[in-house]
Amino acid sequence: MDFIESCRQLIAIDSAPAHGNKEIARWAAAFCRQRGLIVEEQIEIVGDLEQVNIIARPTSERPSAEFLFQTHLDTADPGPFALWTETGSNPYDAHIIDGKIYGLGTADVKLDFLCKLEAIAAFKDRAWRLPPVLVGTFGEETGMQGALKLIRKNKVSAKMALIGEPSDLRLVNAAKGFATVEIRIPFSEEEIRYRDEHNLRESTSTQSKLFQGKAAHSSMPHLGESAIKKMLEYLTMLPDSVNIMEIDGGINFNTVPSHAFLEIDMVSPVKKPISGRLANIYRGLQELEKEFLKHKDEEFFPSTPTLNIGLIRTNENDVQLSGSCRLPPIITHEVYEKWMEQLRSLCEQNGAIFSVNDYKKPFRTEVNSILIKGCLDELRSLGLNAEPTTQPSTNEASIFSRIGVDCACFGPGKREGNVHTPQEHVAIEDLYKAIEFYKKVIERFCL
Question: Which of 269, 359, 396, 438 has the fewest Cβ atoms within 10 Å of its own Cβ atom?
């Protein structure tokens, strides 16, 4: 099987959060064995899904120190298939157009796993100084659970690591952290009864409105247009007496939502409907965003913390909002705690429940470290950009760096306006450049 065909096959396997990565991990494990690597499959049950970490080595025994080449095998949710116009409305059917591969996971970051595999498989029967280990993890899009399980069960002996991340072939030495939050605003008993009765009527007095936006990764909200924000702005202009019958938008906390739907009843006997409390919470979130603007880290773009409301749903007993905050390294833990307490207090004042579902600290590896300097030298030797950069997103480097592993992030594919959008793609030429870079890193650090 040639490299491009293996890319097509990998993209064809669904590894979105609802599906899990078991199928793609088994494919990756078999392909690694075919290329001569010794593979361990770390099987974990998360919720009701079987998830798998793939750990592939060129040696049969685990060494005391390793160079970690890590890439997550899961993807974001594709959203509406109809928006994937470059792939015939099927995000899993990779299409090649003008030298670029389109499809879900092409840039973020399934194909990077194959680039790393190609590089490691090129070196056989070598005397390793710092042996490489190739790891494909699960759950990056849902809290990096695979990387956490890898560390907790002591599956690798990493001293240095290259983390797969779409960076446009730039070396990333620092990235933002994030907090994922959830807000639940309960309906009153009066509202629940009214909504139940309303759903049984033949005639209705409700009005519906659709809101359109533009999808983007939550770390770069300025590249998208939030349909949920448009909807909440509209809601704040309505009287507090409006009754919300249905409110829905977005696909996950990590994506700027491209669509939202609102159904309201302007004529309602409910005295204090949920709409007023939801509007108050949204205004409070806007005030927090203003506070974010006072904290700048000029090494990043966007330079300030950012907030994304990625999902809103109407449940039987409440309205649920899920979102994420992106935090540059200058934000101390004390400032972070203050902001979370501010949100908690805002929700309590409006009878809502606030929770932080996940928190990952930002990471930074100094530019004068052996890893960063060596990788930049190899990029320079290949005629690629040899200036370190930062990213506003969060990845597994946040986790591995906390246990003393020197980390850098790298990968083919652009991030801005590309990942978490239906136009996701990567240039085939960049995939081959990534393979050459990984070979150079192996020669420098591992042999």
Answer: 269
Our measurement of the distance from residue 97's CA atom to the centroid of its chain's CA atoms, rounded to an integer in Å, reads 26
If one counts every other C-beta atom within 10 angstroms of the C-beta of residue 353, the result is 14
- Closest by CA to 7, choosing from 409, 417, 432, is 432
**Cα atoms found within 13 Å of the Cα of residue 197, Cβ hemisphere only:** 11
Angle at 323 between CA 246 and CA 85, to 5 degrees: 75
Torsion angle of the four alpha carbons 323, 392, 302, 329, in this order, in degrees rounded to the nearest 10: 100
What pLDDT, on the 0 to 100 scale, is given for residue 337?
A: 95
Output phi, psi for 394, to 5 deg: -125, 140
Indicate the pLDDT class of residue 68, thresholds 50, 70 and 90. very high
What gap in Å lies between CA 399 and CA 386, rounded to an integer? 25
- 212-247 burial code (b ≥16 CB/10 A, e <16): ebebbbbbbbebbbbbbbbbbeebbeeeebbbbbeb
The CA dihedral of 305, 311, 316, 319, to the nearest 10 degrees, is 40
What pLDDT is recorded for position 202? 60
Q: Cβ(111)–Cβ(31) under 8 Å? A: no
Q: What is the pLDDT of residues 297-344, one digit of tens each?
A: 999 999 999 999 999 999 999 999 999 999 999 999 999 999 999 999
Q: What is the pLDDT of residue 204?
A: 66
- Over residues 378-428, the pLDDT tens digits come to 999 999 999 999 999 889 999 999 999 999 999 999 998 899 999 999 999
Closest CA to 445 of 109, 69, 169: 69
Q: What's the rounded Cα separation, in Å, for the pair 83 and 234?
A: 25
- How many other CB atoms are there within 10 angstroms of residue 383's CB atom? 8
The distance from CA 280 to its chain's CA centroid, rounded to whole angstroms, is: 29
Residue type for position 182: E
Q: Per-residue pLDDT tens for 116-169?
A: 999 999 998 899 999 999 999 999 988 899 999 999 999 999 999 999 999 999
Q: How far apart, in whole angstroms, are the C-alpha atoms of residue 137 and residue 146?
A: 5
CA separation for the pair 396, 143 (Å, rounded):
9
**302's tokens:** 């966007």
The Cα 347–Cα 283 span in angstroms is 11
Q: 161, 408 in Cβ contact below 8 A? A: yes
CA distances, 130 to each of 61, 63, 127, 396 (Å): 13, 8, 9, 21
At residue 164, φ and ψ (nearest 5 deg) are -70, 125
